[in-house]
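1st attempt posting a full record on here, be nice pls
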Amino acid sequence: MNSNFKKLLFNRVYKFLQRISCKIIGLSPWAVENNIYSVSMVGSYYNFLLSVVLSVFSLGGIFDHLPNPNSLQFSLIVLKRISFVTLLPTILIPLYYIIRQKQLISVYNRFAKVDGILKKCADFKLSRNCTNRVIFGVNLLTTVFLVVILDMCYYPLAVILYGNLPTVIGGGVMIQYAMLLNKIESRFKSINSVILKISEPKMSVVGPQMMSVIQEYQFHESILYDIDNLEKAYRELYEMCYDAANFYGIPMIITILSFGVRIIFTLYGVLVVTLEITTYILFAWPVVGFRFFWFVFLFVVFTSSTTEMKKQNRKLARTICTLVDQSTLDDKVVEKLSCFSSDLSELEIVLTACDIISLDRSLLGIATATVTIYLAISLQFALLNH
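the predicted structure (as tokens):
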């Protein structure tokens, strides 16, 4: 009894923290009641107000204290202005959520439909794990620790706001998207497990008698029924993946660009201080260290979620091909599985951001190469000025 109560309490606290943290940064304008998502006018008004306040704040920061073009500090302050400019597109994300929220609400509400289809299968069991809770917990603790504790020890409030808001909002987008993909992936795993259990009926021996022809016919029909439901569920999940990708395309491009600029700015500052090119920038090294851990964590978690999604898709195709190759299966079952397999080849999941940036693990290599190139160019200019 105590164990069940603790689990229930933990789930409620987890859901509350997840929803309230997303609402604060403008990533959850909708309302949720009994796991049913709907448009909320209060949440939409809050997102609009958040965008207005952040727009005024960021514009003031960009034009405050114009630098002297003749000083060595000029390039560094220009980079600081660029860092401020990244706040402008980031604050458009809450507005984007207001406009496009119905599309994401539809995706979340379709989980109930998919689960209803899968529950019709004889051996269905939803694959559950703590991945989303761990991801959310680590991200929340890292964000709070960076913003509330470390940054307040070293920087004024204004610097904390413009220094962290883009990454907090962008990081929230990546974590929210990764958690959604993990929920979809768990359904793919369940489909895979049901497919693996498809086999010929075992001999049910009661004395000398074996399974009757009628029982065997009913068994085959139940398998065909399960395959139909699995295919319906798969198509729903496939459409949900692409609806989610369509929604998150623009926010992901904004997030990746914003993160890239800020990583280049931070690394540039670290290198020019380390190489004693300038002493203008003062870094709080603990803050820089934890912030890089946060950046790496976000990108690794997100790209891992998208890559695992593709792996499950390919694994399902291989599993079906293996079953089809077994000569023990009924001809109708083989035919149905073959049709399912051919559909899978046409419904391969490839997630991108607006068909521009691939969102699997190749994104890590592309991001690293891009940051390195721009960092090398910036350092060359700094060395020439020095």
